[in-house]
Design goal:
The protein is an alpha/beta fold and about 350 residues long. The protein has one domain. Helices cover about 30% and strands about 15% of the residues. Strands 1-3-2-4-5-6 form a 6-stranded mixed beta sheet, with helices on both faces. A 4-stranded mixed beta sheet has the order 7-12-11-8, with no helix packed on it. Strands 9-10 form a two-stranded antiparallel ribbon. Strand 2, helix 3 and strand 3 form a beta-alpha-beta unit. Helix 1 runs parallel beside helix 5 and helix 4 crosses helix 5. The chain is globular.
Length: about 350
């Protein structure tokens, strides 16, 4: 399945880069008509500074943290439309209260909240593609899957444009995403930041859980130090020694940032330097859970160390890409914001 995810991600990015973003037949995108999001309404934001939402949450040990910098974080959440019956066809319904709540108390709580020390978080609801869009069974489903991604991206793009026009007011921006969110964010970076004036406002982009071909961008580069700004951080986490088949077939080395060192020259960091993960219990920070080892376009970690980890049999740690390194990512977002303001105050 991960091989199909990778192939579809590359096909979608290539198609949109060469053909624009509105070439697919709309009838494929959604079998049941749904609300078109109006991003002037708070109900279409999973996280927003003007509402109380799970991105405001803090694990109990760091509950006294307060926002330090005047930075905006635009976060694009991963796939949460998982119902095997596909009740709304290939794209999620924004009217699905149960799905919205699931999104809010999974990725918004456990991932978006990482960035609430650096600034204000904006995370749009969007008509995300169903998880099956990453593994279509035939050519007809492939067309529907690509169109589902296209519709989802249109919502993300519309939300980002509304955010720029009505909320951002020229503040510096952190872009963050995971999984399907990163599928869309790769395009967003290409269309709005790469060799564009807006690049000057980019603190950093955390584009996690998907392969990032550095050749897709002309000006945006990978972050090389913990304080680098205007650059991309990315990683995909697997157990040490495991290389998915599709990774071996990649014709490029994906950007891979070490989420413990944040330094291109420090590529193997022991878990004893990992100050804290957030796992099943959001209010508990668990130190020393995971190593971080750069390896040919992916991130390796030894077997994670936490209570009950002997039951954790998978070698694919995609779901924990952020959570294994929660405090490290949190601090790094602050460090890059500080670096951004220092750099711009001296210009």
């Amino acid at each position: 399945m991960r091989k199909v995810i990778y192939i579809l991600s590359i096909v979608l990015f290539s198609h949109c880069a060469s053909n624009g973003y509105s070439k697919l037949e709309p009838q494929y995108a959604q079998e049941k008509m749904d609300l078109v999001p109006d991003y002037s309404q708070l109900q279409y934001w999973a996280a927003h500074p003007d509402k109380k939402d799970p991105s405001d949450s803090l694990p109990k040990p760091i509950r006294k943290d307060i926002t330090i910098f005047n930075v905006d974080i635009f976060f694009v959440h991963p796939t949460s439309y998982l119902d095997t019956s596909m009740p709304n066809g290939w794209n999620a319904s924004l009217k699905d209260a149960k799905l919205n709540a699931y999104t809010d108390y999974t990725s918004i709580l456990n991932q978006a909240s990482i960035f609430n020390l650096a600034g204000k978080i904006y995370a749009p609801r969007y008509r995300q593609a169903h998880i099956n869009s990453y593994s279509p069974k035939n050519s007809a489903d492939t067309l529907k899957a690509l169109a589902a991604f296209e519709l989802a991206y249109q919502d993300v793009k519309t939300a980002f444009e509304y955010f720029l026009a009505h909320y951002n007011n020229g503040r510096p921006i952190i872009i963050a995403s995971h999984s399907q969110g990163s599928t869309h964010t790769k395009r967003l970076l290409k269309e709005y930041f790469d060799n564009k004036p807006l690049a000057k406002k980019l603190v950093a982009a955390y584009v996690v859980g998907m392969a990032i071909n550095p050749a897709d961008y002309t000006q945006l580069k990978s972050c090389e130090t913990p304080e680098s700004i205007g650059c991309i951080c990315a990683w995909r986490t697997y157990q040490e020694g495991y290389i998915p088949e599709f990774v071996n077939k990649e014709k490029f080395n994906s950007i891979v940032t070490n989420p413990l060192s944040w330094d291109k020259n420090e590529t193997k960091i022991d878990r004893k330097f990992n100050k804290g993960a957030v796992l099943y219990n959001f209010n508990k920070i668990v130190p020393n859970v995971a190593d971080a080892i750069n390896h040919d376009g992916i991130l390796w970690t030894g077997k994670p160390h936490f209570l009950g980890s002997f039951l954790y049999k998978t070698s694919n740690y995609h779901i924990a890409d952020y959570n294994f390194y929660y405090l490290s990512v949190r601090q790094n977002a602050v460090d890059r914001a500080e670096s951004y303001f220092k750099s711009n105050s001296s210009n």
